[in-house]
Amino acid sequence: MNKVILMGRLTRDPEVRYSAGENALAIARYTLAVDRRFKRDGEATADFINCVSFGRIAEFAERYFHKGIRITICGRIQTGSYTNREGQKVYTTEVVVEEQEFAESKAASQGYAAANNTAPSMPAADMPAPSAASADGFMNIPDGIDEELPFS
Fold first, then answer.
1. How many Å apart are CA 52 and CA 48, to the nearest integer?
2. Which of 6, 13, 62, 108 falls between 20 and 30 A from 127, CA-CA?
3. How far is CA 13 from each of CA 57, 67, 85, rounded to the nearest angstrom?
């Protein structure tokens, strides 16, 4: 079985290209910084995982993902190789993304971006409409509704 589940932050905005031809296919590439669970002195505290997605998943990444956002992905590891311009064989490993989703609230993501001097690349007009949620991401329950709740 080849199944990978990762959660981390994007190190840069996704790079999206479209295939040639009549039915162009979106291909998104991005790098996910995944924190290591155990840290040793002098070692890196994160692994940087190359990811690639196709089609509608890639289009979603192009529209809503930006540097610094925390996401969760599911997919499979794929290895490959190619010969570079110097004639050397280069081996590659990447995760082919099959599912992806946000791993934090919009407010938390914006707080991270503000603290790290990064700005979302998506204009506010393209952002999904906010729900009746407060700044902490939870919906406010109107006063006097306690009597109607079945579990109070």
1. 13
2. 6
3. 15, 5, 27
Segment holding 55, helix H or strand E? helix 55-64
* Tens digits of residue pLDDT in 16-66: 999 998 889 999 999 999 998 877 777 768 999 999 999 999 999 999 999
DSSP E strand boundaries for 36-69: 46-54
Among left, alpha and beta (phi > 0; psi -120 to 50; other), residue 35 is: beta
- Please answer whether residues 44 and 59 qualify as being in contact, where contact means their C-beta atoms are separated by less than 8 angstroms: no
| 84-139: pLDDT as tens digits | 999 999 999 999 999 999 998 767 666 666 666 655 444 444 444 444 445 555 66
What tokens were used for 24?
A: 């162009």
Distance separating alpha carbons of residues 118 and 111, to the nearest angstrom: 10
Q: Of the candidates 150, 54, 64, 141, which has an alpha carbon nearest to the alpha carbon of residue 97?
A: 54
Q: Which domains does the chain have, with CATH numbers?
A: 4-148 (2.40.50.140)
- From CA 121, how far away is CA 105, in angstroms rounded? 17
Q: How far apart are CA 75 and CA 79, in angstroms?
A: 13
